[in-house]
Design a protein that fits this description.
The chain has 182 residues and is of the alpha+beta class. It has one domain: Peptide Deformylase. The chain contains 3 helices and 9 strands, in the order E-H-E-E-E-E-E-E-E-H-H-E. It has a 5-stranded antiparallel beta sheet, with helices on both faces. A two-stranded parallel ribbon has the order 1-9. A two-stranded antiparallel ribbon has the order 5-6. A hairpin with a 5-residue loop joins strand 7 and strand 8. The longest helix is centred in the first third of the chain and has 15 residues. The chain is globular and about 45 Å long.
Length: 182
Amino acid sequence: MILPIYLYGQPVLRRPTEDVAPGELDVKQLVSDMQETLLAAEGCGLAAPQVGLSKRLFVVDGTELAEDYPECKDFKQAFINPEIIEESEETSVYSEGCLSLPGISENVTRPRTIKIRYQDEDFVEHVDTLTDFKARIVLHEYDHLEAHVFTDRISPIRRQFCKTKLTNIAKGKTVARYKYKR
């Protein structure tokens, strides 16, 4: 089922998230719905707060990016109760957008490599090291679990340039090409 994506200004995007406990949610159905929503919206990552849930869960699907970013070839998975345990000092800059902030993109500096501990849909724990675009996708979604959006990571002057667009999104003066909730 395609879920509505919550746009900037919705309080859930700024709320702290809670761990997902086994048996608490139908995790497999939620992950399936989020992956379907992500595909319909043509994104590469979607966090639970973006579909109205203050839970520590996100999905990624970088498979469509594989031509430009070969490391994303089979990168489609769920991250439950993730924790970034290490970040490289080496960084990279890339223009990011967000399904919750339609029409806005800005250059964001992020660590080039991360180590992340998380659980899969069966609550089996994993620790992975991710680099380049895989790391960027995960860090972007992880920010949502920490009640941040990518514009929190840009310079104050660039944030000022985005202020009108952000205000328009929050006031419902923006439309998106996918199902959304104001």
